[in-house]
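Sharing a chain and its predicted structure for anyone who wants a worked example. Both blocks are below, sequence first, tokens second.
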Amino acid sequence: MSRYRGPRLKICRKLGELPGLTRKTSKKVSPPGEQGQKSKKPSEYAVRLEEKQKLRFNYGISEKQLFKYIKIAKKAQGSTGSILLQILEMRLDNTVFRLGLAPTIPAARQLVNHGHITVNNKTLNICSYQCKPGDLIQAKENNTSKKLIKTYLNYPGLANIPNHLELDKNKLLGKINGIIEREWVALQLNELLIVEYYSRK
């Protein structure tokens, strides 16, 4: 399944708050569709699937990409769920979003794709690039890029910048000081259920 391009609020009503997907909030409380009105206990599979979908829609990745990240996380030492979240959080598009240079992850992806972002003084348009501690992320040295990012900075998607990042607003320069810790992940989910979902495949 490719990247989702449909109505975002519908997804948020179904899965809960997804700060990376949209900043809008729906006035409707119930899940979308006629079945949303009925309260029925979901099956174990449905609960795991929902957690997996939260991750997919929030970070804007395809099923194929998520499966690839799961395989990488399983090979690494440590908790598979935590490593998976670290991989997703250290993606370039998400890092641009978490620095406050874009209001949502789709907006950050567009900035990267259109060549408005440099990493270590080199223009990089690969959203899935894995940022590393010590990387410098900056707005490209032209008026269009700087004007666009300054506009975004006035309306950040999240209130706080995680402790592994720092941002110089005057220079529009962000620095990665380390790997993100689990408590700074802005998404409310149980990553163990996602690992269980894929372990059955």
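Comments welcome. The chain is about 40% helix and 10% strand.
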